[in-house]
Amino acid sequence: MSEEIKRMSVEASKLKSVILRNNNIDILLYLAKYNPTTTIKEIKERFGEESLKEIDLLKQSHLVREEKERLILTDEGIFQVEGLLTLVV
Description:
By secondary structure, the chain is mainly alpha-helical. A two-stranded antiparallel sheet has the order 1-2. The chain contains five helices and two strands, in the order ααααββα.
């Protein structure tokens, strides 16, 4: 039980650092608003060249996935965006 709690804590910490990094919150919120019509090219134009690295991090964290050159929030990504919106409201 203790090991499971430690593992969950480490995963939550990693996820928090990815979400708070650079424009990742903005990218997630943008995808939530324009999903599923947003392309990687549109994200790059809106958030800059460095956003391509951030998209890779979001993919590795299972927050977004790519389908036919479009970025789509995963269930986990939707859950995280809902949590962010709850904090704002």
